[in-house]
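target protein:
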Amino acid sequence: MNQDYIKPDNWSIIEEGFDAERVKSSESLFSIGNGAMGQRANFEETYSAETFQGSYIAGIYYPDKTKVGWWKNGYPKYFAKVLNAPNWIGIDIEINEENLDLNTCTEVRNFRRELNMKEGWYNRSFEAVLKNGTEIAVNVRRFLSLDLDEAGIIKYDITPLNKDAKIVYKPYVDAGVTNEDANWEEKFWEPLEVKKGTNEAFVTAQTFKTHFKVTTFMHNTILANGENINVSPSTIDSTTDKVQYTYGTIIAKGQTSSIQKIGGYTVSLNHENTLAGAEKVIKSAVALGYDALLQNQIDAWAKIWEMSDITIEGDVKAQQGIRFNIFQLNQTYSGKDSRLNIGPKGFTGEKYGGSTYWDTEAYCIPFYMATKDQQVARNLLTYRYNQLDKAIENAKDNLGFKNGAALYPMVTMNGEECHNEWEITHEEIHRNGAIAFAIYNYNRYTGDYSYIPEKGLEVLIGIARFWHQRASFSKDKNQYVILGVTGPNEYENNINNNFYTNYIAKWCIDFATEQIEKVASEYPADHKRVMDKISLSAEEIKEWKKVADNMYFPISEELGIYLQQDGFLDKDLVPVKDLDKSQRPINQKWSWDRVLRSPYIKQADVLQGFYFFEDHFSKEELKRNFEFYESFTVHESSLSPCVHSIQAAALDKMDMAYTFYLRTSRLDLDDYNKEVEEGCHITSMAGTWMSIVEGFGGMRVKNDQLHFSPKIPKEWKGYSFKINFRNQILKVSVNHNETTFTVDSDQDLNIVVNGETITAGKLAQIN
């Protein structure tokens, strides 16, 4: 834990007291989104101290030219930036002719932020003394509509406390924005058109290179004590990329002046005419009005929470943590559009770039399968199917592979690889396995096999072809090996025979072979269509199987463990408990050379394989490998604590499981890795959900049935969650005395609890 200023609360994220040192962290933590767009919790008014301005639109990106000191063949030509979108929230404010700026105020008191996760809004309030002696109270509420997802709403209230005040509002829309992480300090937006109306304005701009067109809009209403005073702007200032209106008002001491601002984006992905689309959005939002828009927001979030909430009794910090994670996941991805995916920072920052990593398949799909309609997860799989041609092109053009071998990108926006680190781009090839595993996992959980003959089989074949060609035969070992890789543990690069990579490569080939046979038998028309398209022969499959059946796995017979890679035991094996805390996190304190030579593990690696393929190993094997590798794991990846929590629970190490749960659930809230100001770790938040459902709840799917082995941390009185399993809603409630299973329908559901089959109906209780 590196910060502890967020107040414990069951349903809200709360900050009290103004501290400039916390501003950027809070901008991340209080971010809001609605699946179509999102923004950091930047101040609407001027703020002259350090801040990280960021608003983002789903699916909009820029191919920023890769910047490296030494170019290597096959290097991605660009790094896809998640673009800082035009600013629509801005409102410059003058009070008695002085600019409101918390950095220059004489005093700021009673500062409070609240992100109300239950109802989906962000609120900021404070009292301030300006240099001119005017004292004011301010309350600002902002939300991004889930129903009208191209619109956001701000209600900014100002009450003068010690004298009458002349208040000047200067709302604006501005396309003259830049990215914090631009490689070449380029501007990414080209202004096209400015349009001004009575109280509304529009700036249309397009991205350079990718030519996404976006109309950014605003509509302003000025109120006194809640009543519209029908004020028109006194001046209108505009440039090619910015429009700013000025509204002058006078308000008596103790009375409240307000501006309501509707703003947002319409994009060419969804509109042939973005300007006409923006005008339509404004018309719809104005017709509803602020109160109805807010109520609709509350209702929409109530519907989301009805299915996805996890309750925890007796541990407020644990409860706050899981709800924060679930809230951010739902803000980031709604599942409506198969062109979109789940970026590692969501709408909270720009680091990493890209719209998807292997995180989606490895961590996020289980959450969306269980808390949404199965079509949402299917859309995430369809995203990869639609980019199969690019994956084949990536393997062919960058690595010299042939015959339809597919290497999915580590980072992508449109199917092209766009990560700019060699060891990630070309060595961390295990991501191919996670994509195949997600297809298996989707079928296992939903029972919907149709995706495989319709789309998934082609993906599985492309991936199997890749692994077949990527492996090489070792005469010394008389087995197939995979050389020069980076496993999930990115603190080892260019190593040989990473256990996880080799294991999932073998599994992918075996699984693809099984599915070819099943589709041939049960879906002959689809089988013929696919075989005609890709020219797959029985001889080629035989060659695949030769690799899979003779894959090498590094093992220590003495320790009874799989080795993370061939040379792991050659390292100076000093456990993490003996590492000076002043040296943490090592990725910020050590040279990269020292990190690579150390035994320290960034995240679950061998244990990632045990997580995916739990049924392939005995409990004793898990215990030996867990106890060995956890002792060297520094958990400096957000993806690490959740896997360890699940496995600790499976091994009845409940204190450890709880500690890991708290770390994954409060990773950002408590800033464990000292980096939350760059944005939140959205994809790992799905792992927090898994820590409870799969960890403490022990949920597994075996032989088309749900299995549970419920456990409860001693710190909790009880917990509950719901899952949608094959269109039946099952609620699981656990306390120290009993577990109850309730089906939300008249149809019973057979489940297995601690090895015993029971029938869950309106109520089933296990003591």
